[in-house]
Design goal:
The chain contains four helices and seven strands; from the N terminus they run βββαβαββααβ. It is of the alpha+beta class.
C-alpha cells in the first residue's frame, strides 16, 4: 500500500494488480471486493478528509422561456455529471420554499464536486461551456455560490 499525501491518492497492490483511489469512502467500500471476499481490517487506513465543494446556482428565467425549455436545460445540466469527471451529485428544480425569500430566483441546482480541483476543471470544461451557451440566453439573472465541506 502506498499513500501520497501530495496528491491525496492511495495505491493498493493486490495479486499483481494496482488500484488507485482518490475517493477514500469509495476505497473503503471496495476493500472487501478488492481482497476477493477476504474481509481485512480497515481501521489502520487513516486518511485526511479532503474538502468537497458544493456548487449552488440560482436562476431566474426570462418570462418568454417555456416550461419545456427549462426541462430541456435542466436535462443538459444533469448530463454533465456523466461527461465531466469529479461531479458526484446533481439535483435541481423550481423553487419550492414557502418563505418568499427567493428574491426573484425561480430555479436552482446543486452540484457536488470531489474536490476544489475537480470544480476548477469543470468551470472551463468544453461541455460546461456548451451548456452555458444554451442556458445563458434564457437567463434573466444568475447567482453562483460555492462552499467547501468535509463529509
Amino acid at each position: 500500500m502506498q499513500v501520497s499525501t501530495a496528491t491525496n491518492t492511495l495505491a493498493i497492490a493486490l495479486r499483481e494488480k494496482t488500484f488507485w483511489f482518490t475517493d477514500y469512502q469509495l476505497l473503503c467500500s471496495r476493500l472487501p471486493l478488492l481482497t476477493y471476499g477476504k474481509l481485512i481490517k480497515t481501521s489502520f487506513l487513516k486518511f485526511p478528509k479532503m474538502p468537497q465543494v458544493q456548487h449552488v446556482v440560482l436562476l431566474s428565467f426570462k418570462e418568454e422561456v417555456t416550461t419545456e425549455q427549462i426541462t430541456y436545460l435542466f436535462g443538459l445540466l444533469a448530463e454533465l455529471q456523466q461527461l465531466i469527471p469529479g461531479i458526484t451529485h446533481f439535483s435541481g428544480g423550481p423553487n419550492s420554499s414557502p418563505e418568499g425569500l427567493n428574491q426573484g430566483y425561480t430555479h436552482g441546482f446543486l452540484m457536488t464536486f470531489v474536490s476544489v480541483e475537480a470544480r476548477d476543471v469543470y468551470l472551463p470544461h468544453p461541455e460546461h461551456e456548451r451548456v452555458k451557451a444554451e442556458l445563458n440566453p434564457c437567463i434573466e439573472a444568475v447567482l453562483v455560490f460555492d462552499f467547501d465541506f468535509k463529509s
